[in-house]
Amino acid sequence: MLTYLKANLFMKKRNVIFLATVAGLLVLDQVTKYVIHTGMSLHESIPVIPGFFSITYIRNPGAAFGFLAGASPTFRYVFFIGVTLAAIGLILHYLRVYADEDQLLTISLGMILSGALGNLIDRIRFGEVIDFLDFYIGVNHWPAFNVADSSISVGAFVLFIYIIRMKKTVPGSPPA
To answer: What are the residue boundaries of the structural domains of the chain, listed by start?
Structure first.
């Protein structure tokens, strides 16, 4: 009985951590996009650190670095929504199967899911994603991105660290 209670309490703690991560980052993503969408004109740019960083309202019909931006809108819509739904399914599967005892994995999966959901909401609402974080030096710009993209990137990095850390602790695994 005690083991059952401990397992259920931990499962609840894991779920709370996961849901708090997803909800917090998703709300931050959607609020920032709402502020940009309602407070700026498309392609308007507000310098924050001149010569390095601006808030610039753009719409990205593709994925990272404009991937598939030139494809037909119908193909992009179906492709990106399908890929996002598959990713959401995988994240929930990994959470259920592997994240029982590790908060780092739980948080990384929550970050990735929040980013996927944030960009999915944009794709459903607008057919493209609102981006606004614009880093550059002179005329050389890094592709603009948003909070959802940041959540996915940081979550993937944390997941990578988790995998490297687990590889070192699993008996019989080859050295990293």
So the answer is: 2-169
- CA angle, 32 as apex, 80 and 63 as ends, to 5°? 20
Catalytic residue among 29, 122, 131, 134: 131
Residue with tokens 């924050």: 48
Q: Which two tokens stand for residue 53?
A: 């960083």
- Residues 71-111 pLDDT 10s: 777 887 888 889 889 999 999 888 888 766 688 899 999 99
The yes-or-no answer on residue 29 being catalytic is: no
| pTM over the 0.85 mark | no
Cα dihedral value 23, 24, 27, 30, nearest 10:
-100
Does 131 qualify as catalytic in the annotation?
A: yes
